[in-house]
Structure prediction request, 190 residues.
Amino acid sequence: MSALMEPFTTAMDLRTGQLEPERNVGVRTVGDMRGWFLANDSGAAESVVYTVSTMPVPESVVELQSSTTRIHAGRVGDEFFMTKGHFHQKRDRSEIYMTVAGEGVLLMATESGEYRTEPMRPGTINYVPGGWAHRSVNVGDDDLVFLAAYIGDAGQDYATIETRGFPVRVVQSGSGSGYAVVNNPRYHAA
Ligand code: PAN
Ligand code: ZN
Prediction:
């Protein structure tokens, strides 16, 4: 029998989402996300859209993966900064998001093109059932920070979203931090 994992603790600053110790960080820039936004980016390709800090846990069904995501405030064209979004590789694997800071929209969609939006603000706990692709969008003026916890062997399938997109986009509307959910002209249904 293999050795048990060592327990470990991470401290999160509840105002900023900063982790101590910091965990394995992935960075997505505007340049990395070319083609994911509808507009061609006119801004700096090296601008950071979001970072993801992932806990060091094996990708096994008996474990719980978790990560902290920080989406900066900004837009490409009229579209707010957002995560790429994905289905889980194992489609039936579910997930929980808890928002720590900022204001966002959690966009979810099924393979058949149904979609839902749910609010994200400090203290909200969103449940993402199996079968729903999920993308988070920062519609506020500050960083959107949230903790995600998911079944360890879920895996992330980005290719399906890269090919088909989400049925809708979350765009700026009016002045300030108003937003609207509009059809995505590039969406390809399954
Ligand atoms: C989250 C996401 C994270 C970044 O941990 O992976 O917010 O979004 P993308 O993975 O779409 O770039 C999650 O949903 N994990 O399954
Ligand atoms: Zn996920």
In short: DSSP finds one helix and 17 strands in the chain. The radius of gyration is 16 Å.
